[in-house]
Amino acid sequence: MDDAQDRFKLNWYSEFRNKEIESEYRENEKTTNLKTVRALILLYGIIYALFAISDYVYYVQTSPFLVLLGFRSLALLVTLTGYYLAGKINNYSRILLVITFIEILICMIILIHLYVQGNNDSAMHFKSIMLLILAVFLIPNLWKNSMAASLIILTSYIIFSLIFVEQPQNPSINQMANFIGIGLAFCAFAIYGRERSQRRHYAAEKLMEHMIITDRLTGIYNRGRFEYILDLWIKNMRHYPFCLIFYDIDNFKKVNDVHGHSVGDQVLIECANIIKLHIRDTDIFARWGGEEFVVLFSGVKIDMGVELAERLRAAVEAHEFSKAGNVTISIGVVEYHKGETILDLVERADAKMYEAKRAGRNKVIGDYDNPPEAN
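RE: above sequence
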């Protein structure tokens, strides 16, 4: 359990230290937030474009209105592009970078718009930039992306105001910048806390899921999860042909009696670790109960299943267990027959495992007596 908790620790950037977990979280966020992100960026562009109505009413001359209409249309085009790209890009981190770039680009359009417009109403400029920064923090994004975009927008506004805007007496450009900076700090603190809270909630859910589907001692799948996966394999047949191996640690009761249950638990852990090192990523490994374990080998027939099981048996036999010395396992191997139930398959594997026990232990026995039906 401690190892699982370590995988979900956060760094100072409010990201998971484990890159795999971070990637899984981003994909989860993509599923949850992508529609909202696309809708909000598009909505912002539409709202900005709709202000063309007030421009039309305010400006009597046609030429200034057409210039402003061009800028508003350009901003709308940028947001439409972002909306389209967000739906096409698969990597959610890249989607968020595109959104961040679009937010900065819209800021540049607004500043050019204000420059061409030639309006020295600094209060209006201030409101426009403040609303843009608020929009940046309202659109779901990574904390560092939102912060970077907001700082770039604020810096651009200050430089623009100092160079092109007539300096107002009250409030001054410095006062406006300070006000935006304070608002930016509060927004950054809020979104940083929100992101950490969301990730901690995600971690708590995943840890709970981990506890439900895994064996607490060995950290591999438990019986319930194994039966669920095996049922899926049988239903969709994507892994067919496949083999099931059922193995038991030989003389495990003697290990407990001689060395104690704590040593017995260590044997179970070490044995599981050996098996994990010698199976493929596509194989399924679980603790059935007590000292009994099961493995599903995907895409193999009985001959290959027996060969793979023999490798596992040899690896356990060759291992020097920390306190129990040499330990062996007995394995039964069966190939799935179309039409079989989970119970039928497990019972056949269990029978072959006990046959290996009766044959002297530390053996692999495959079920060659009941070949699967021909396709």
